[in-house]
Amino acid sequence: MINPSRRFLQIIFALVAVIAIGVIGYRLIEGWSLLDSFFMTVTTISTVGYSEIHPLSTGGMIFTIVLIIGGVGVLFYALTTVVQYIIEGNLANILGRRRMKEKISKLKGHIIVCGFGRVGKEVARVFQEEGVDFVVVDNSKDSIAEAAANGYLYVEGNASSDEVLKEAGILHARGLVAAAGSDADNVFVTLSARGLRPDIFITARASAQESEFKLRRAGADRTIYPHVLGGRRLAMLALRPLVVDFVDTALESRGKELVLENIGVGPGSPVVGKTCKEGQRCGNGAVILAVRKKDGRLFTSLSDEMLLELGDQLIVIGNREQLRDLEGTS
Fold first, then answer.
1. Backbone angles phi, psi at 178, to 5 degrees
2. 241-327: what CATH class?
3. 0.85 exceeded by the pTM?
4. 2 DSSP 8-state letter
5. Angle ∠(132,137,140) on CA atoms, nearest 5
6. Which of 14, 147, 241, 256 could form a disulfide with 154 if both were Cys (CB 3.0 to 4.6 A apart)?
7. Residue ranges of the domains in the chain?
8. Does domain 4-87 have CATH number 3.40.50.620?
9. Interior angle at CA 198, CA 192 and CA 203, nearest 5
10. Concatenated DSSP letters for 256-286?
């Protein structure tokens, strides 16, 4: 199928060719000047109805008839192409992309999903269910069409391009998921993202364990192997099905069911400067399971007297209301 840009170039070439043939024809047949020949050609193919600027010979009349048939045909083709362009939604697509850019430019603290294959689609689905703002980046028209059909914000283009990442709002994003189909693509995406935002949190998909080192060197904070992860999950389901069900419920539940969440201890947090025992009370029933200190150490066996400091990350289980109390956002 011919794309619209190429089709418009064909139309322009056809119009120029018809005008050139008309000018040359009148010059050769009637001996008119270039200006007279050009004027006669334009008035003829546009069928505006002006009379001849000079009397026509028999050959000139025959040539004019042929020029009218050919010129009107080209103009009719041009008009139908423009109408088809509008009907097919290309104009709407242009306006839609402009609105899409405006929406993305207003995002703050969103996540960029690079790659909309099987892994990227699942990531986007979870983000949508969690109410997380995100932008899909992919260079496949089919993938972008599917993302648009699902109501996702998207940018069509190569995710390793700095300009594409900027269009996706990387300068204001809080995270990026490199979920392209190949490890090489994810390495380049990670390198580009890390170069633009040294502080952004990057999660990368790897299809082979030997790619982890390259992704880490490129700047990925975490790497995931879908095949290994799927195998481990199958094993855990066979060995500890109730534990897996509980964790799934805690990770994916909605409403007032139990939720596993990580909460940052910020300046407005009610637990900052308090002990773990005091922090438990702030959550009205939420349980602090582990603490990652700001220096990177992870504590899973918590003492009641451990001090919760600014910059710590808490792994907490509780319902949504309890988590909001613990965050200080209720």
1. -90, 100
2. alpha beta
3. no
4. -
5. 135
6. 147
7. 4-87, 107-229, 241-327
8. no
9. 70
10. TS-EEEEEE--TT-TTTT-BHHHHHHHTTT-
Question: From CA 136, how far away is CA 167, in angstroms rounded?
Answer: 11
Superfamily in which the 107-229 domain is placed by CATH: NAD(P)-binding Rossmann-like Domain (3.40.50.720)
SS3 content of the chain, % helix, strand, coil (to 5): 55, 15, 30
181-224 per-position pLDDT tens digit: 889 999 999 999 999 999 999 999 988 878 888 999 999 999 98
Can you read off the two tokens belonging to residue 186?
Answer: 């994810």
The torsion angles phi and psi of 136, rounded to 5 degrees, stand at -90, 135
Q: What is the pLDDT of residues 84-123, one digit of tens each?
A: 666 655 555 666 678 888 899 999 999 999 999 999 999 9
Helical segments of 161-319, H only: 162-167, 183-196, 211-218, 226-239, 241-252, 276-282
